[in-house]
Specification:
The chain has 94 residues and is mainly alpha-helical. 68% of the residues lie in helices and 0% in strands. The longest helix has 16 residues.
Length: 94
């Protein structure tokens, strides 16, 4: 069953809040994306920024597990939410 648009936004916003509070991963995200603190704050409501946060978390299974376990999010909801955001329907062959 696909997530509703409200559920997608909730997963994305929860992921952003989790990342913002993660002292180890936040600098990695900022370095990888080039985002600064202002861009991070401005991007919270931007679906493309939300997608970038989910893409980042999805890069490592341990990060997915840590996020989901910490926030009580079912593991499969991260990928479902990412698929519903901009660029999520693109086919990746790598």
């Amino acid at each position: 069953m696909a997530l509703s648009q409200d559920a997608v936004e909730q997963v994305a916003l929860t992921a952003i809040a989790w990342l913002a509070g993660n002292d180890e991963l936040l600098p990695v995200f900022m370095g990888a994306t080039g985002a600064d603190e202002a861009a991070f704050r401005e991007g919270v409501r931007d679906p493309e920024f939300q997608a970038s946060v989910l893409d980042f978390i999805l890069m490592d299974d341990a990060w997915v597990v840590a996020f989901c376990d910490n926030k009580g999010v079912p593991y499969d909801h991260v990928m479902q939410a990412r698929g519903a955001l901009p660029g999520g329907a693109q086919v990746h062959w790598t």
